[in-house]
Amino acid sequence: MCYLFLTGTPIDPFHFVWVAFYSSLFVCLSFRSIWLKVLVCGINLLTVSGFTFIALMGGTDIILAVIWNALVPFLPNPWY
Known about the structure:
mainly alpha
């Protein structure tokens, strides 16, 4: 990922939204500490919300695109 950024290759953060969703799901299923679950899920929520807020300049359909990319990243996105 750092290599792509340093070489100037455009990085679209919406291709990585699924990582935030499934990592939160993994943390909730594997860890017992409620505070760790809240912390990791909160950080993921803030990150995805930040990406979504920045992308809202393109229209409100991006909210549906973010949800689609988070849940089923392997299917073509009809909104993006």
